[in-house]
């Protein structure tokens, strides 16, 4: 089972280590990845991922169901590991439209089916691709909540999530059914407490002389 930003929130906030008020986390793009896989003429199941994922998590520690997640993914960060395929998907009208719709976005609308014992939950939200919005449910699981040694022991959370999408729901039905309509999506996330994340990034920028 994999994790979603929303699932992570519910469990992280319910933890006795959480503060009494709302905590905000910033996604660490270096350790956050969205991957999707499809079937190719029945012979193989290649996968691609987006290399830039940014966003935030607002965790309501007293009422986890009021927590929220927002994620932005630049379409141009698509990486299929095949340069010609990247070009095809980013330039042909039957696929992505990076000039008109440069970002994919996800905004949570709720957290349901929270299982505190197994650290699992469902993150519900609105996914927008090519300007088309659809409700999706991410089956999620909390990996860990604690101090991150690479971020000066700042509070951090990590989780996995998964869902299944139909690309035709977002205006990308070319070559169906030879190339599957269904996409299996997996997500892995690390998020750092927002103030600590901002301070560390400012420190790194200063050290780089920028």
Automatic annotation (TrEMBL):
Family annotation (InterPro entries): Lipid/polyisoprenoid-bd_YceI (IPR007372), TTHA0802/YceI-like_sf (IPR036761)
Keywords: Signal
Keyword match Signal: yes
SMART domains, per the entry: YceI (SM00867)
Domain Lipid/polyisoprenoid-binding YceI-like: 24-192
Domain of life: Bacteria
Protein's recorded name: Lipid/polyisoprenoid-binding YceI-like domain-containing protein
